[in-house]
From TrEMBL, chain A:
<dbReference type="Pfam" id="PF04264">
    <property type="entry name" value="YceI"/>
</dbReference>
<feature type="signal peptide">
    <location>
        <begin position="1"/>
        <end position="23"/>
    </location>
</feature>
<dbReference type="InterPro" id="IPR036761">
    <property type="entry name" value="TTHA0802/YceI-like_sf"/>
</dbReference>
<keyword id="KW-0732">Signal</keyword>
<dbReference type="InterPro" id="IPR007372">
    <property type="entry name" value="Lipid/polyisoprenoid-bd_YceI"/>
</dbReference>
<feature type="domain" description="Lipid/polyisoprenoid-binding YceI-like">
    <location>
        <begin position="27"/>
        <end position="191"/>
    </location>
</feature>
<protein>
    <submittedName>
        <fullName>Polyisoprenoid-binding protein YceI</fullName>
    </submittedName>
</protein>
Automatic annotation (TrEMBL), chain B:
<protein>
    <submittedName>
        <fullName>Uncharacterized protein</fullName>
    </submittedName>
</protein>
<feature type="transmembrane region" description="Helical">
    <location>
        <begin position="181"/>
        <end position="200"/>
    </location>
</feature>
<keyword id="KW-0812">Transmembrane</keyword>
<keyword id="KW-1133">Transmembrane helix</keyword>
<feature type="transmembrane region" description="Helical">
    <location>
        <begin position="89"/>
        <end position="109"/>
    </location>
</feature>
<feature type="transmembrane region" description="Helical">
    <location>
        <begin position="264"/>
        <end position="286"/>
    </location>
</feature>
<keyword id="KW-0472">Membrane</keyword>
<feature type="transmembrane region" description="Helical">
    <location>
        <begin position="65"/>
        <end position="82"/>
    </location>
</feature>
<feature type="transmembrane region" description="Helical">
    <location>
        <begin position="155"/>
        <end position="175"/>
    </location>
</feature>
């Protein structure tokens, strides 16, 4: 009898513990090897050029049961801009665009998450670029969460899309020939800290 | 028309040339000693067109370059209107230049390289203010020019030096994929060219503090290029001897006649352009000779 009561108590505490663990937000670190921060900019009306940042870093605190309680902070090394053309990248690093010597990082800090569907939402936050902070909204899709068969680590995956006006941040050079509207595509894999 | 104004080639050549020609003429009508202020005025106007009006206080080096240039323009106009000259005017110029340079350079002073660049540029600014031999309006190396004539050793020499320096800065920036700095350097060269056209074949204007400010602006633009971009701006050291080109004229035994002055101006121009071309050549070789495709 004593053994049965002990087993029941152990089961109850384990079950309660598991339930509270699943409800708690979990902090993940961005995996730079599987995170892409891509932008698309119109080039003189002829084409849309893709570029990316090779050094993103940050944290996602994700609550699967209450996604609106989640939060995101990201810092991107602006000097890691890469458009597959070194001379153009030099120009992008200059004061005409990202001014990387004076502003080596751009950051995003979420302020609110709205749930819009089973696995979609709107991520509100402040983007700070060239020393200017402006509110932006990204459409976010939660892709997957669990142990990655590749890394064997607890992993969460998200996609985000949005558009900003670079001139809002004081990046006016070349507008309108080099597009003012910048599409942002973000694919994130984040690993449990 | 709007497309034309947004064309980078027009913005950095024909437009500043036209603004420079017009501004020199208008300022000449207002007061002859103010005519040289057309050069910094054109720089500020083209900056507004190319980069836009920077915020105040400016968050970046380019914004600081604009406001420092605007302050220099006001300083030059006031000083030239009041006829300021001599050591007092030179000190005023040196203070403006040193304050502007430190304001721009401060965020980049994180090592020996930027510190050496700062010291070199401070030295060059000091040379412009005190050692270049460029003179305030109405003065000559030996005193005051005769009434109604342009001063001997007047505007042509320093304007040629400015033209050469600004071309070196603009060209180096262009090769180093810093387009707006390239445009501003080339616009400054075009403004100097417009001023030179007004002073050819006969010199009509003095150089004045506004002209000295224009030379300072060329150095401040070089500072932004050297400290805040990936350009091989170290090659601009090769262009610095251009600042001493004004001394060449003193070494030549040329008569104080129209022909002698023209020959002196030509010698100064050559002495200024050669170091600038050397800097451009070095930038081309080191940079692979390819500019940004945007």
């Amino acid at each position: 009898m004593k053994k049965t009561l002990f087993a029941a108590a152990l089961f109850a505490s384990a079950a309660f513990g598991a339930a509270s663990a699943s409800a708690a937000p979990v902090t993940y670190k961005l995996d730079p090897a599987h995170t892409s921060v891509v932008f698309i900019v119109n080039h003189v009306g002829f084409s849309n050029l893709f570029g990316r940042f090779d050094k993103p870093a940050g944290e996602v605190t994700f609550d699967k049961d209450a996604p609106e309680k989640s939060s995101v902070t990201v810092a991107i090394d602006t000097a890691s801009v890469d458009t597959n053309h070194e001379k153009r990248d030099q120009h992008l690093r200059s004061p005409d665009f990202f001014n990387t010597k004076e502003f080596p990082q751009m950051t995003f800090k979420s302020s609110k998450i709205e749930k819009t569907g089973d696995n979609t939402g709107k991520l509100h936050g402040d983007l700070t670029l060239l020393g200017v902070s402006k509110p932006v909204v990204l459409d976010v899709t939660f892709n997957n969460q669990g142990v990655s068969p590749a890394s064997k680590q607890e992993t969460a995956g998200f996609s985000a899309r949005g558009t900003i006006k670079r001139s809002d941040f004081g990046m006016k050079y070349g507008v309108p020939a080099i597009g003012d509207d910048i599409q942002i595509l973000i694919e994130v894999e984040a690993v449990k800290s | 028309m709007s497309d034309l104004l947004h064309d980078p080639f027009i913005q950095s050549s024909l437009l500043p040339l036209a603004i420079g020609l017009l501004a020199t003429g208008v300022l000449h009508l207002l007061r002859r000693s103010l005519a040289v202020a057309a050069i910094p005025l054109t720089f500020v106007a083209v900056f507004l067109l190319v980069v836009g009006l920077p915020a105040l206080p400016p968050p970046s080096s380019m914004g600081k370059l604009f406001w420092a240039s605007a302050a220099g323009l006001v300083l030059g106009i006031v000083a030239d209107a009041l006829g300021a000259r001599g050591r007092g005017a030179a000190t005023l110029l040196a203070v403006w230049f040193a304050a502007s340079l430190l304001w721009i350079a401060l965020p980049a002073l994180d090592g020996v390289g930027p510190a050496v660049t700062l010291l070199l540029l401070l030295g060059a600014g000091g040379w412009i203010a005190f050692g270049s031999g460029f003179h305030a309006p109405g003065t000559t190396p030996s005193g005051t020019a005769p009434s109604g004539t342009a001063p001997s050793g007047g505007a042509t020499g320093p304007a040629s030096v400015l033209l050469a320096l600004a071309l070196a800065v603009g060209g180096t920036a262009l090769i180093g994929s810093s387009a707006s700095i390239a445009q501003m350097g080339l616009a400054l060269a075009a403004a100097a060219g417009a001023f030179l056209l007004w002073n050819w074949p006969a010199e009509r204007h003095g150089w004045g503090l506004s002209g000295q400010v224009a030379l300072g602006i060329a150095l401040l633009t070089a500072a932004v290029l050297a400290l805040f971009t990936d350009s091989r701006a170290v090659v601009l050291i090769l262009a610095l001897p251009a600042l001493a080109a004004g001394r060449v004229r003193r070494l030549l035994p040329l008569p104080e006649t129209g022909l002698g002055r023209a020959a002196g101006a030509a010698a100064v121009t050559i002495a200024a352009v050669v170091p600038a071309l050397a800097a451009l050549g070095a930038a081309f070789v080191l940079g692979g000779g390819e500019a940004s495709p945007y």
